[in-house]
Design brief:
The protein is α/β, with parallel strands linked by helices and about 220 residues long. The chain has one domain: Formyl transferase, N-terminal domain (Rossmann fold, 3-Layer(aba) Sandwich), CATH 3.40.50. It is about 30% helix and about 25% strand. It is globular, with a radius of gyration of 17 Å. Bound molecules: 5-O-phosphono-beta-D-ribofuranosylamine. 5-O-phosphono-beta-D-ribofuranosylamine binds next to α1, β5 and α6.
Length: about 220
């Protein structure tokens, strides 16, 4: 998509509550995120994210994974929906299905995920408990491009929170979620403005390779652009 021609067409995949989806919706309705939300998809009919989408007037569909014999046919069904709406960018936002290499390759450079840890620390599940048990002073979340490696694609932006003495996984998760609601819209804003791209498996900001992810709060020009 050429950003001067039309707004970036964004689809969001959710499995649950969808507070990150809501952060994208809110930024868009406030006028601080120049995108066109074209579709919200879930594998779970009960996902509250579907309600959030419909409330915001965004087309919302459920593609139940249990109705498909294998991952590949489920991914093909999702892909057909994304192609019908001509999605330029696909956001995984609490989407709890592992995608096939074929799906990931098809949308390479156009597929983003948000993961609740300071990657490369703690890929996979249960990240808050693992950070507490390791005695980490800091925890947080990372927005990254999706590659075949689980939670391992080029990192774009991180938000950090200090781990408090009396934190449990739940209290820490609440604070991490708050920074997620800032970093996901920021990452999408950078892509929508044409400043952030992914080429040959690397992320580039303003045509410079992003060796380390941006840090929320340490990149003052982010919101101004
Ligand atoms: C977030 O913590 C995100 O990092 C992880 O799943 C959670 C989704 O939360 N991938 P929500 O559904 O957006 O509230």
């Amino acid at each position: 998509m050429n950003p001067v021609d039309a707004a970036l067409r964004v689809a969001v995949l959710v499995s649950g509550g969808g507070t990150n989806l809501q952060a994208i919706i809110d930024a868009h309705s406030r006028g601080t995120l120049d995108i066109e939300p074209v579709l919200v998809l879930s594998n779970n009919a009960q996902a509250y994210g579907l309600v959030r989408a419909r409330t915001a007037g965004i087309p919302a569909k459920c593609v139940p994974h249990a109705s498909f014999p294998d991952r590949a046919s489920f991914d093909e069904a999702i892909s057909a929906q994304l192609d019908t709406v001509q999605a330029d960018l696909i956001l995984l936002a609490g989407f709890m299905r592992i995608l096939t290499p074929g799906f990931v390759a098809k949308y390479a450079g156009r597929l983003l995920n948000i993961h609740p840890s300071l990657l490369p620390l703690y890929p996979g599940l249960d990240t808050h408990r693992r950070a507490i048990e390791a005695g980490d002073a800091w925890h947080g979340s990372t927005v990254h491009y999706v590659t075949e490696k689980l939670d391992g694609g080029p990192r774009i932006i991180q938000g950090r929170v200090p781990v408090a003495q009396d934190d449990d996984a739940e209290s820490l998760a609440r604070r991490v979620l708050a920074v997620e609601h800032e970093i996901y819209p920021e990452a999408v804003r950078l892509i929508a403005s044409g400043r952030l791209t992914c080429r040959d498996g690397d992320a580039f900001l303003d045509n410079r390779k992003l060796d380390e992810p941006l840090q929320l709060g340490e990149f003052p020009t982010l919101s101004a652009t």
